[in-house]
């Protein structure tokens, strides 16, 4: 089947096809000079060949549920294959291009106005983060019709969930804490992305009103509650104690941390990166450590990070807030 992204792209290419044909027809009907005819004809033919070339460069992929898709992505893929990425909780479709088992590029696809806006926000953050913290290299953001694609160069290595059975849990926790500390020590004077508690509550309210919150995916302690109920409790917890603004990732989990030969090579999925309270990353990372490595390693995370007092109220606030995204 052709997914809407591809169907809309084909419609766009057909429009380009028609526009390119207009000057070609015009110069021949108007009996222009030979040089003009040749020049315009060559340019028009190049445009006319664009669609068949893209179709020939398309790739077929099978999703985990057996759905077969045909994709036309940015660039030409030679000698490699496309793989659907199933790790993580993002609603976006992520396609990895790899060659000889080595990941080279990622294409994150979005459809619909809200999804495109979220992907564009990630592109903005990714570009700002370049050179400040280790993140994937931004390659291209393209949007056409009602779909968009964010293309990045793959970081070397594997995410930390792939290393759980190959490294000691304590070492994984130390790497997490070190990476988080590095982010939080990054200067934020010129960071334009406000993720303060109030700003994130506004985003949560917008997500609820847009029907984007999946209540069926809530953590066990909140599974019988509604999104509106959680939002009301979060608002009742404000104002939180004064905090030092730091650069936070916003989704600091094991699947989003990439390791290569025992060292952190970078973090991915930066769509919620911005200035906030360090407890935001600590809360989400602690939950990820609890899920993947066990409760006994959470205190080690805090010790290795170097924080002497962890505020349980703020941990609860940011953990609960994350349910709404």
What features would you describe in this structure?
- The structure is a single chain.
- The chain is of the alpha+beta class.
- It is built from 10 helices and 12 strands.
- The chain has 3 domains: 1-56; 73-154, Phosphorylase Kinase, domain 1 (2-Layer Sandwich), CATH 3.30.200.20; 158-322, Alpha-Beta Complex (Aminoglycoside 3'-phosphotransferase, Chain: A, domain 2).
- 42% of the residues lie in helices and 19% in strands.
- The strands form 4 sheets. A 5-stranded antiparallel β-sheet has the order 3-4-5-7-6, with helices on both faces.
- A hairpin with a 2-residue loop joins strand 10 and strand 11.
- Helix 5 (169-184) runs antiparallel to helix 8 and helix 8 (278-292) crosses helix 10 (312-322).
- The chain is elongated.
- The two termini are 30 Å apart.
- Mean pLDDT is 84; it is low at 1-5, 63-67 and 73-77.
């Amino acid at each position: 089947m052709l997914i809407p992204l591809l169907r809309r792209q084909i419609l766009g290419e057909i429009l380009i096809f028609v526009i390119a044909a207009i000057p070609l027809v015009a110069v021949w009907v108007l009996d222009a000079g030979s040089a003009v005819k040749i020049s315009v004809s060559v340019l028009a033919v190049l445009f006319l060949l664009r669609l068949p070339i893209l179709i020939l460069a398309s790739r077929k992929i099978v999703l985990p549920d057996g759905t077969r898709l045909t994709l036309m992505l940015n660039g030409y893929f030679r000698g490699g294959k496309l793989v659907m990425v199933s790790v993580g909780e993002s609603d976006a479709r992520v396609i990895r291009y790899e060659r000889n088992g080595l990941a080279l590029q990622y294409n994150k696809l979005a459809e619909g106005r809200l999804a495109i806006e979220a992907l564009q926000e990630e592109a903005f953050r990714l570009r700002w983060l370049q050179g400040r913290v280790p993140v994937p290299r931004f390659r291209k953001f393209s949007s056409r019709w009602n779909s968009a694609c964010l293309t990045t160069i793959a970081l070397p290595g594997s995410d930390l969930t792939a290393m759980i059975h190959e490294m000691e849990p304590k070492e994984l926790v130390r790497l997490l804490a070190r990476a988080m500390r590095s982010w939080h020590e990054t200067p934020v004077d010129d960071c334009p992305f406000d993720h303060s508690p109030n700003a994130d509550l506004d985003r949560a309210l917008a997500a609820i009103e847009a029907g984007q919150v999946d209540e069926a995916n809530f953590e066990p302690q909140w599974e019988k509650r509604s999104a509106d109920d959680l939002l009301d409790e979060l608002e009742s917890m404000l104002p939180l104690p004064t905090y030092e603004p730091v650069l936070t990732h916003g989704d600091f989990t094991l699947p989003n941390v990439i390791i290569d030969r025992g060292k952190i090579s970078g973090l991915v999925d930066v769509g919620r990166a911005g200035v906030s309270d360090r407890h935001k990353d600590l809360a989400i990372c602690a939950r990820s450590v609890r899920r993947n490595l066990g409760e006994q390693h959470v205190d080690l995370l805090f010790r290795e990070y170097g924080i002497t007092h962890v505020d349980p109220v703020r941990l609860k606030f940011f953990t609960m807030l994350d349910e709404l995204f």
